[in-house]
UniProtKB/TrEMBL annotation:
PROSITE patterns: DENN. One of its GO terms (cellular component) is cytosol. Pfam families: DENN, uDENN. It comes from the Eukaryota. One of its GO terms (molecular function) is guanyl-nucleotide exchange factor activity. PANTHER family: DENN DOMAIN-CONTAINING, DENN DOMAIN-CONTAINING PROTEIN 1C. InterPro entries: cDENN_dom, DENND1A/B/C, Tripartite_DENN, uDENN_dom. Gene3D superfamilies: 3.30.450.200. Keywords: Guanine-nucleotide releasing factor. Residues 1-137 form the UDENN domain. The lineage of its organism: Eukaryota, Metazoa, Chordata, Craniata, Vertebrata. This is DENN domain containing 1C. GO terms for biological process: endocytic recycling; endocytosis.
């Protein structure tokens, strides 16, 4: 069995989104993209006490060709929304740092800077294997 990591992905990431905490009314079967918030909140929100701790975690989706796409999540205290990046690249530390930077921009209401960061990262060519990745914020 070969690697389940997609070879030569076209983009550094496929999608960035901020998911709202799903409610029990959201239990109706829906399109696959609408199911993503359930992966961002993999627990019963009613049973968990709020915490000031930020949690980073990952989920994995498998496409029709068997390739893994990683969902990198940042769930802040209060559990109202979750920041998430979907990518075929298993760059755990890099994407967690990017999510923390995104959260800082959102907290400071620096939406233009955030849009520029996401656009630049999205349009940047994927580095070649064993090439260093330098990100400056």
């Amino acid at each position: 069995m070969g690697s389940r990591i997609k070879e030569n992905p076209q983009k550094t990431f496929d999608l960035f989104f901020e998911a709202a905490c799903p409610t029990s009314a959201d239990d109706v079967p829906q399109e696959s993209i609408q199911m993503l918030p359930k992966f961002c909140f993999p627990f019963d929100i009613e049973r968990v006490k709020e915490s000031s701790v930020v949690q980073n975690f990952t989920f994995v989706l498998t496409d029709l060709e068997g390739n893994q796409r990683f969902g990198f999540c940042r769930l802040a205290g209060g559990f109202r929304t979750c920041l998430c990046i979907l990518s075929y690249l298993p760059w755990f530390e890099v994407f967690y740092k990017i999510l923390n930077n995104i959260a800082d921009h959102l907290a400071k209401e620096q939406l233009n800077e955030l849009a520029e960061l996401l656009s630049t990262l999205y349009c940047h060519p994927v580095p070649h294997l064993n090439s260093p990745v330098n990100l400056e914020f």
